[in-house]
Automatic annotation (TrEMBL):
One of its GO terms (cellular component) is protein-DNA complex. This is LysR family transcriptional regulator. It comes from Streptomyces boncukensis. Belongs to the LysR transcriptional regulatory family. Keywords: DNA-binding, Transcription, Transcription regulation. The keyword DNA-binding applies. GO terms for molecular function: DNA binding; DNA-binding transcription factor activity.
Length: 315
């Protein structure tokens, strides 16, 4: 409840919950000393809280003499109305506390490109711990990595870093992997055993389309090499499969982490290791203010799986 003196939109003075608790206990004990013991406060503090409550109401609720404590007629009526309302408030708080501690419901998980082994291993561990929870998975497109979270289509997402979104929370980070360049098997670079990042200036890079933010798209298809040489821009695509199709058609090269390259080996596309770029990394993301016991439990499963050692990543 509001601080002393605050008023609701209807103009009614609100009271402190501690004042109501004090009145209820005092009404049961009819003794300021015993009421203070139950509330773990001094007898003078009980008197102070009562005076504050009576001031808000505008009348005496308790009559006190040197020998006795009794409720006034208004105090009796106030008690009859307050007690069930206070008990109901307690039930509401207890229910919220139970729900917050209980891992139940449905978890909707989004993943970028493909469900990697880390994600599926975390899902398996999570199910073993909480078999009562239903889970569903959905693909997050390269062109809109954060949109499904904002639209409420998924509860959590496994996406490539970086994540610099003020309305989203970045949880566990995992799966640092080197990059490879996907190119047509007929491309001159396909015959190379490995590439230096500076050589990306020789190949248009296939990148993500909008509405993916520019900083995120630039990480997947950097506009310059580490030394600052311009990298030609290739087609923009919405999905991983679209990007691989463009690479096979010799429209450019596409940077993918090594495990994703291994998982999507196909005729007509060659994956060449690239040295000199910071490794790719995945992170678990959810909407700010939406954290629940369910989400915390899955984040813990991801962290526990991540500690077991390297497994394959997504895009």
């Amino acid at each position: 409840m509001d601080a002393p003196g605050h008023r609701s939109r209807a103009g009614r003075t609100r009271v402190e919950i501690r004042e109501l608790e004090c009145f209820l206990v005092l009404a049961e004990e009819l003794h300021f000393g015993r009421a203070g013991e139950r509330l773990y406060v001094s007898q003078s503090r009980v008197s102070q809280l009562l005076r504050s409550l009576e001031s808000r109401i505008g009348a005496r609720l308790v009559e006190r003499t040197s020998r006795s404590v009794a409720l006034t007629p208004l105090g009796e009526r106030f008690l009859r109305g307050l007690r069930p309302a206070y008990e109901e408030l307690g039930r509401v708080v207890d229910q919220a506390r139970t729900e917050a501690r209980c891992v139940s419901g449905t978890l909707r998980l989004g993943f970028l490109g493909s469900a990697n082994r880390r994600t599926t291993a975390a899902l398996g561990l999570f199910h073993a711990r909480y078999p009562q929870v239903e889970t569903s998975v959905a693909e997050i497109t390269m062109a809109d990595p954060f949109g499904p979270l904002r639209r409420g289509e998924v509860d959590m997402g496994v996406v490539l870093l970086p994540v610099d979104e003020p309305d989203l929370v970045l949880g566990p980070r995992f799966e640092r992997q080197p990059w490879t360049l996907a190119v047509s098997s007929a491309h001159p670079l396909a015959a190379r055993a490995a590439l230096d990042a500076e050589e990306l200036a020789r190949c248009p890079l296939i990148g993500s389309d909008e509405p993916a933010p520019a900083y995120w798209r630039d990480c997947q298809a950097p506009p310059v090499t580490p030394s600052g040489r311009p990298v030609p821009a290739g087609p923009r695509v919405r999905t991983l499969q679209e990007g691989l199709a463009m690479a096979a058609a010799r429209r450019g090269g596409m940077l993918l982490c090594r495990p994703t390259a291994e998982a999507h080996a196909q005729a007509g596309v060659t994956f060449v290791p690239v040295h000199g770029l910071p490794p790719s990394e995945l992170g678990l993301v959810w909407a700010k203010g939406a954290e629940t016991a369910l989400l915390r439990a899955f984040a813990a499963a991801v962290e526990d799986v991540a500690e077991e050692g390297p497994v394959t990543a997504a895009v």
